[in-house]
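Retry 2 of 3 after timeout on previous attempt. Resubmitting structure tokens to design endpoint.
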């Protein structure tokens, strides 16, 4: 019974999905979403912090199976510590991503992402300390994820694995961010 339901669902999705974007097309996708951000590496007593992100991607469709995109996003990252302690890191993220279409309108995505800190603060209770001078001026991450397009809406989920450290101090503290977003794809060409 489960197989019949799964097969019926797959057929409905296939029949109602919109056509893939044409080879050589250029599209713009404004996106908004949520971050579940944390820090990994030489850090302890920390947990995920909820944040938002927003921006847009521009994608060039190289072939029916591969697309390349570049984007610009404002992203609220950081982490929470035990008690009322938080590390707030807001970045401008510039993802350069390859999209591999493994099924109609379904792509597996990976690439490289540059992060430029806009602000960095440590908060403990009512006390806030600016620590932007203690953070690297450029952070590099590896985005890995999947996206699905339905009637020009793009649903995207990805994990950004920090490759470079966030802090200038000794030790290695890296970003670890799960992003879930929705966008709308406009063909420009």
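Retry 2 succeeded. Sequence:
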């Amino acid at each position: 019974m489960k197989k019949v339901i799964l097969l019926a669902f797959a057929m409905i999705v296939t029949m109602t999905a919109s056509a893939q974007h044409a080879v050589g097309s250029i599209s713009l996708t404004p996106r908004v979403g949520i971050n579940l951000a944390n820090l990994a590496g030489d850090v302890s007593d920390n947990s995920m912090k909820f944040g938002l992100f927003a921006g847009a991607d521009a994608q060039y469709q190289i072939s029916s199976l591969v697309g390349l995109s570049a984007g610009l996003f404002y992203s609220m990252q950081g982490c929470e510590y035990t008690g009322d302690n938080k590390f707030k890191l807001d970045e401008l993220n510039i993802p350069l991503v390859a999209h591999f279409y493994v099924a109609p309108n379904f792509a597996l995505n990976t690439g490289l992402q540059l992060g430029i800190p806009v602000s960095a603060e440590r908060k403990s209770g009512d006390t806030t300390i600016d620590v932007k001078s203690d953070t690297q001026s450029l952070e590099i991450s590896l985005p890995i994820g999947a996206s699905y397009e339905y009637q020009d809406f793009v649903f995207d989920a990805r994990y950004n694995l920090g490759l470079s450290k966030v802090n200038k101090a000794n030790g290695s503290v890296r970003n670890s961010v799960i992003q879930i977003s929705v966008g709308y794809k406009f063909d420009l060409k």
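Attempt log closed. The chain has a mean pLDDT of 90.
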